[in-house]
Design goal:
five-stranded mixed beta sheet, two-stranded antiparallel ribbon
């Protein structure tokens, strides 16, 4: 009985030690990444947010098979306290016909697969272009202090 009690006590102490060690590595308030809705001021490009749109339009390489589409690529990235961009991701793409026509084009299965592959490649291209953007951002501000902020940025294209 004493052995079982000692074994239970040892297990409890080990489990408590593990919990204590994980609590010590929890992020502090200064390391927290806020959503843009949680901050007082959202991050902004120092030269103006239009420079990001301009940069994307000048550097984005469109796949050749994409025609007559209205495309929105949803991206996100983190702006740290120093105004640097990191953790760039393109996580969703929405595609609709740009100009609806009365004529129905019958696409083969191979053409549909090719178009779907190229649309999916546009997410990777969006992430690539955003990673090239080197201008500094004004970081988000919460309670008068610069903070890390997750920034969602939709990219819109109308391809004729």
């Amino acid at each position: 009985m004493k052995k079982i009690l000692l074994l239970c006590l040892a297990f409890t102490l080990q489990a408590t030690a593990q919990v204590a060690s994980t609590d010590a590595s929890a992020p502090t308030e200064t390391e927290k990444t806020y959503r843009s809705t949680e901050v007082d001021l959202k991050p902004q490009v120092k030269d103006g947010n239009y420079t990001l749109s301009l940069f994307i339009s000048e550097n984005f390489k469109f796949p050749p098979a994409i025609k007559n589409k209205k495309i929105t690529i949803f991206t996100s990235f983190i702006i740290d306290k120093d105004g640097n961009m990191s953790d760039v991701k393109a996580f969703h793409i929405n595609v609709k016909d740009y100009i609806v026509t009365d004529k129905v084009k019958i696409a083969t299965q191979d053409e549909k697969i090719e178009e779907a592959d190229q649309i999916e490649m546009m997410k990777a291209e969006a992430a690539r272009v955003l990673k090239l953007f080197s201008k500094t951002w004004q970081p988000a501000v919460k309670n008068g202090q610069p903070v890390r902020c997750l920034y969602n940025y939709p990219i819109h294209f109308n391809v004729e």
